[in-house]
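Dear colleagues,

I hope this message finds you well. In preparation for our joint manuscript, I am sending the DoxX family protein (Zarconia navalis LEGE 11467) sequence together with its predicted structure, so that both groups work from identical material. I would be grateful if you could confirm receipt.
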Amino acid sequence: MSLNPFSNSLRRRDIVLAYTLLRILLGVNYFNHGFTRMGNIPAFAQSMVDLFQNTFIPDPLVRGPAFLVPIIELIAGGLLAVGFATRASLVTLFGLMIMLTYGVTLIQNWDAASSQLIYCLVLFILLAGSTFNVFSVDRWLARRKKG
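The corresponding structure tokens are as follows:
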């Protein structure tokens, strides 16, 4: 039996590299979402209140979480980019996406909802594939602790 040089098998090192690059990319994306909003969180919160003015959700229940969104994006995105507290960052971002998806579907912004589902799919891939999180601060700390 001859080996097929065009085999469809995936090599672990390629999966680890792909995982690392995807983790960094998503982390940078979330970090920059938060970073660009940090300079004017009150205006961001007000824009969210304005979006939800015709819904049943009262102003404080929109404004409060809206103040936290950029902070969560900044912190969890930064941690994800470097691979520190990766699992906690992914779970936090999943929670954020659940909240944001609820909001955009409530106002029937289906384009945003579709985009958010893509984010959730990437979060799923990263959380489910966490054994491939080799190039990260988490892994470095675990190795250091063992040695």
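For the figure legend, we might mention the following. The chain has a mean pLDDT of 94. Residues 12-146 form one domain.

With kind regards,
E.M.
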